[in-house]
Design goal:
This protein is an alpha+beta fold and about 160 residues long. The chain has helices at about 45-50, 95-105, 125-140; strands at about 5, 10-15, 65-70, 75-85, 105-115, 140-150, 155.
């Protein structure tokens, strides 16, 4: 019989397990590499990287990415966090920091594009930035900037004094 044990010549039945715990291992899988020879030390360098290497300004729908930086502001990881519609990309804080924590980075730059042409942030962009900043502070990770990329312009939350 299932779960039957012998104990001093008596048959004892062990209870059915109520739940099963799974053991997991987390790992990063590299998809692609980008060669560059500068630190992302200012907004214009970050915007240049986002346009030249990620082509964020050419995406037909909103795409949210996170750039993970070391202490010297060298880029050590890039994640596409979400891909949305013409005017919205989900920016789930949990999804952002699930990736960020795997890289053991010192600071991050969040970026997304506005395919409609205007880099002006929406109220949702502003609220999301504040939420991400609060979460980053709790985790001792610096949010260097949130950059919105449009085809011919950009908006930097740090330059605007919001960060």
């Amino acid at each position: 019989m299932k779960n039957q044990l012998s104990f001093f010549d008596r048959k004892v039945y062990a209870p059915e397990p109520r739940c099963i715990a799974q053991k997991y291992r987390i790992s990063l899988i590299k998809e692609e590499s980008f060669a560059y020879n500068f630190q992302l030390a200012n907004v214009s360098l970050a915007v240049d990287f986002l346009k030249k290497h990620l082509k964020l300004h050419l995406e037909p729908e909103e795409v949210l990415v996170v750039l993970c930086l070391d202490v010297q502001l060298n880029l050590n990881a890039i994640f596409e966090v979400s891909r949305g519609t013409l005017n919205f990309a989900p920016a789930n804080t949990r999804e952002i920091f699930k990736r960020v924590l795997l890289t053991n980075c010192h600071s991050i730059i969040i970026a997304h594009n506005h395919p409609g042409g205007s880099a002006k942030p929406s109220m949702d962009d502003i609220d999301t930035t504040k939420k991400i900043k609060e979460a980053a502070q709790l985790l001792d990770i610096r949010l260097n900037d949130h950059i919105i990329i449009a085809e011919d312009s950009y908006y930097s939350f740090s330059q605007a004094g919001i960060l």
